[in-house]
Design a protein that fits this description.
The protein is α+β, with helices and mostly antiparallel strands and about 180 residues long. The chain is about 40% helix and about 30% strand. The protein has a seven-stranded mixed sheet, with helices on both faces.
Length: about 180
């Protein structure tokens, strides 16, 4: 009887644990470095949707020479494998610039941006451990970046008719 109760309790614990994993698994977001042209095309499609169609950035300004030369690209996928976010980083004379973070509207506020940012930071820091990591943040994204260890520096400026601040990663997230 004692073994049967322990067994039943263990089964209950395992079932409970499995339910938590399944529930959590429905929200799992992966962010990986782009290694093939299909994924790069998905990343470009996401960027075009967010920046060109939603925010009105001219197509010629969205894509540049870095896209096919010195930028390292990333693609985020939802739990079912659907591409839902993109980003890139590249070395510059000022350090390493993190840029082109884009998340499709249906996936915002679901940790896609955080998954991308963490992966980009991890890889950029590994490649350039002594470099300053920085980005140009749109005003509405500043609280997000601050929660992840970035700090505003300098004055507000305009890129593609959108207001931004330069932000530098200090390495200590506030949340």
């Amino acid at each position: 009887m004692y073994l049967r109760l322990r067994s039943s309790s263990a089964q209950t614990a395992i079932c409970s644990h499995q339910r938590k994993q399944l529930k959590t698994a429905t929200h799992v977001i992966t962010a990986e470095r782009v290694t093939d042209l299909r994924d790069l095309d998905d990343a470009f499609t996401i960027r075009e949707t967010v920046f060109v169609h939603e925010q009105g950035v001219p197509l010629n300004d969205e894509y540049d020479e870095h896209d096919r030369t010195d930028a390292t690209h990333y693609l985020a996928r939802s739990a079912d494998g659907t591409p839902c976010g993109a980003a890139r980083w590249r070395p510059t004379e000022k350090g390493v610039k993190l840029e082109r973070f884009a998340v499709l509207a249906d996936y915002r506020n679901q940790q896609v941006g955080a998954a991308l940012l963490h992966r980009v930071l991890e890889d950029a820091r590994a490649a350039y451990p002594e470099a300053t990591l920085y980005l140009h943040a749109q005003l509405r994204a500043i609280p997000f970046y601050e929660r992840h260890g970035f700090e505003k520096v300098g004055e507000q400026f305009t890129e593609c008719d959108i207001e931004h601040y330069k932000m530098i990663w200090r390495g200590t997230p506030t949340a």
